[in-house]
What we know:
- The chain is mainly beta.
- Helices cover 4% and strands 37% of the residues.
- A five-stranded antiparallel β-sheet has the order 1-18-17-16-15, with no helix packed on it. Strands 19, 20, 21, 22 and 23 form a five-stranded antiparallel β-sheet that branches. Strands 2-26-25-24 form a four-stranded antiparallel β-sheet, with no helix packed on it.
- The protein is globular.
Amino acid sequence: MRRPTATAALAVSALLIVTGCSAGSPSRGPAPSSSRAGAPTAPAGSARGSAEVVATAATGLVSPWGVAPLPGGDLLIGSRDTGTVVRVAAAGGRRTPLGTVPDVAAAGEGGLLGLAASPRYATDHLLYAYVTTGSDNRIVRMPVDEGAPEGRRLGAPEVVLRGIPKGTVHNGGRIAFGPDGMLYAGTGESGRRGLAQDRASLGGKILRLTPGGRPAPGNPDPGSVVYSYGHRNVQGLAWDAERRLWASEFGQDTWDELNLVEPGGNYGWPRAEGTAHRAGLKDPVVQWRTADASPSGLAYAAGSLWMAGLRSERLWRIPLRGAAVVAEPRAFLQGNYGRLRTVVPLGDDSLWLTTSNTDGRGSPAAGDDRLLRLKVT
Length: 377
């Protein structure tokens, strides 16, 4: 385990009092204009808050990426590079292999990426997965048979959506069911920048579809699964207490972004990276220098958004009041556990968090990769 030092703690404390756009600190844009007038406001996150690792639920995970909570609290965790899925018991951490997802072509940033359990998992036992194949990225769903022998519990995949562009980089991959019961997916432009502005392409988008793969009712274009566009590489999706959708996005060389997602919105890439103040483009609510973020997972708990950082090796807390950031984002766990990939809410005051040190870009320590349980305020 990487251990915190007094120097690191002082560095984080210094970061908290820095504002504006100086090195090592996030930059906030104006309060978003999309706060719903008259809507009840959820309790605001406090200015400082806290995050404490209270348990290590699993160790020795190989390139963990997608994490799907199940009814009852257990988790399904997928390995990007091996294509395998394991069940981890919330109590005790016992691991049970479910099986291997077929046709996973793991290379670069591709492989078995996001996982999401059906909202009706207790009755339909369906697991959704975002998969890089030899020809594309696609979303599939598989029945889970808990009564089958270990390692043979995943049924044959059914394709829900195919044709998402793939590349060595920028495959996106996060999937999640929203409060409306629809399936959302963050995609990347696969290294081909122009796809992000091409409304006919599924690359560089946030998609919204029915559980069966059709365009969701109420989409900007009734015949399309595209919900927003102009994204470079979205790997974090989360809804706040008032059902607003937020997304974390990798920038190129200058700015990583936290965006408040509006249907039909153009988030700028490649015409803009970070805040541009250009007509027709949505500016991020918060932006970070790429060394300070490289964001992947995103979750909402305790009145704040929590954003996992890969290159930055830290967990960012972004406190909200409605749709506005109420105080400067604060960094936790800086350098303690290495690269951080996926963060999942566990009730109102807890999170699951996975490390990502065996993904080819980290420096694995003994026990990596890990599933951590955090208490947050």
